Amino acid sequence: MTKQYTPFPKDFLWGGATAANQIEGGFGEGNKGLNIADVLPGGTERLSVLSEPGFDFEIDREKYTYPNHDAIDFYHRYKEDIALFAEMGFKVFRLSIAWTRIFPNGDEEEPNEEGLAFYDRVFDELHKHNIEPVVTISHYEMPLNLVKNYGGWRSRDVVTFFERYVNAIFERYKDKVKYWMTFNEINSGLMMPIMGLGFSIQNEEDKYTPTFQAFHHQFVASSLAVKACHEIIPDAQIGCMIIYAPVYPYDSNPENVLHALKEEQLFNYFCADVQVRGEYPAFINRYFKENNIELDIKDGDLALIKEHTVDYIGFSYYMSRTERKEKTNEEKAEGNIMSGVKNPYLKASEWGWEIDPTGLQVALNQLYDRYRLPLFVVENGLGAKDNVDVDGPIQDDYRINYLREHIEAMGEAIKDGVDLMGYTAWGCIDLVSASTGQMSKRYGFIYVDKQDDGSGSFERSRKKSFYWYQDVIATNGANIFDE
Questions:
Q1: Looking at residue 312, what is its pLDDT?
Q2: Where are the alpha helices (DSSP H) in 235-335?
Q3: Which of 225, 324, 413, 450 could form a disulfide linkage to 250, CB 3.0–4.6 angstroms apart?
Q4: Could you report how far apart the first and last alpha carbons of the chain are, in Å?
Q5: Is 3 contained in some domain?
Q6: CA gap 281, 278 in Å, rounded
Q7: Could you tell me the CA-to-CA distances from 184 to 13, 97, 196, 350, 430 in Å, in that order?
Q8: According to its UniProt record, which residues of this chain constitute the active site (predicted)?
Q9: Quick one: pLDDT band at residue 98, thresholds 50, 70, 90?
Q10: Collapsing DSSP states into helix, strand and coil, what is residue 313?
């Protein structure tokens, strides 16, 4: 028998990824407090509504629906879902802890036992099936009390509250979780501060200093988390997590090349440089000077950031981005909170996100060349509408084709010499879309009978991609390279 070829190492971490606010439901159960996601209405305008000046962060059921309140009811169905993940062969499962299940208001002195016990049960169930949890500590789920009464991450007080939170979960789960990440897509705060930083830029407010002051507080908090993790769980690994989208110049015009470089530095590298290299990069210091940004940096902050850097880099990859310095009337390309000019060489998804598997190989090479740390693709997937076939599983060949091309790109990057530790496909089970609040924008290998209007049985069923991904894991990717 001919041995199958695969570039993936034998200990490669195959799995899937989710976030608590998009799958759990269990709204108000277990003494959970309100977070930002709880006031997110359903529908494609949800993020613009949340960012409107004067938005009061209140739930208005007469005006809006709130799909995150039920999500897909993982809170009650986690055993069924984890069994399905195990059937696919998952080595790891990326999930987040809802901060408000542990500290309902964010500023309590003591954690909530009911919330701690819930994740005990989830982690125990994962280990029962030999699946390692990969836990995001903060994934767009900031306690609403910290947003409304402290101003989000603009407040230095939130650093203290976050440190209390991470110490509580590290102590509780030190024997159950070996892979951690601090802030989900931390650089998203540049585009959408309300989700990651806990505030909106108001019309009369300077848009620069509050954002970068909030980032500084997150960098301090991240370093404190790394320090605590290494002390409390010495055999654990803790990483950062960014959105990564290679920025292509529209053409070979040097002005466009330089513009693309500056866009890439600010969005792709600023937050990673601080968390990985442990210092503010030179390009951001020039940016601060040119935009009159002065940060309140306390004594010891920079030494803390320098000493406690991350062990690996987790990142989401959905698309590349094409930029031109002088915008004309080209059709815009939108996707994952960012936009650029349309790339004539790429097709796009139903939601306008350009599809560029080669860009993932580019991203992996760029990140590894810059940082020389292990990389972890913790989000990648295709949001698409699925048609239910009563005669068999959903035939989602479009999803299979998308994932196959991106996994192949990862294999090519490994052959380039990139140290890639794992891959968790985003939305491995259908969930509430963060950007649109829709269930109809589906990513999963597992279909969940929940519709945009709130109807549905919550029943789970396997799609064609379920069996395909099962084979990917079983062969460690060899089925892709032997096709």
A1: 98
A2: 254-264, 270-272, 282-290, 301-307
A3: 324
A4: 17
A5: no
A6: 9
A7: 19, 11, 8, 25, 19
A8: 379 (nucleophile)
A9: very high
A10: strand
Residue 8 within any structural domain of the chain:
no
At 355, which CATH number?
A: 3.20.20.80
**DSSP E strand boundaries for 65-125:** 92-96
Q: Number of structural domains, the chain?
A: 1
Residue 294: is it exposed, middle or buried by C-beta count within 10 angstroms (0-12/13-18/19+)? exposed
In terms of Cβ atoms closer than 10 Å to its own Cβ (0-12, 13-18, 19+), residue 344 is exposed
By the 8 A CB rule, do 12 and 92 touch? no
Helices (H), 299-423: 301-307, 357-371, 397-415
Please give the structure tokens belonging to residue 303.
């030494």
**How many helices and strands (H and E) does the chain possess?**
17, 16
Using CA atoms, how far apart are residues 315 and 299, in angstroms rounded to an integer?
Answer: 31
Q: How far apart are CA 16 and CA 134, in angstroms?
A: 10
Residue 2 has pLDDT above 60, yes or no: no
CA distances for 198 relative to 80, 145, 146, 344, 404, angstroms: 33, 10, 8, 36, 36
The tens digit of pLDDT for each residue in 394-413 reads: 999 999 999 999 999 999 99
The boundaries of the domain holding residue 74 are 13-481
Closest CA to 7 of 483, 418, 459: 418
What confidence score (pLDDT) does residue 1 get? 42
Cβ 458 vs Cβ 447: under 8 Å: no
Active site residue 255: no
Least confident of 3-17, 225-239, 293-307, 321-335: 321-335
Q: Provide the b/e sequence for 52-61 (b: ≥16 CB within 10 Å).
A: eeeeeeeeee
> Which residues lie below 8 Å from residue 463, measured CB to CB, with a gap of 6+?
386, 393, 394, 396, 399, 444, 445, 446, 447
Of the residues 379, 408, 412, 459, which is catalytic?
379
Angle (nearest 5°) at CA 74 between 70 and 76: 90
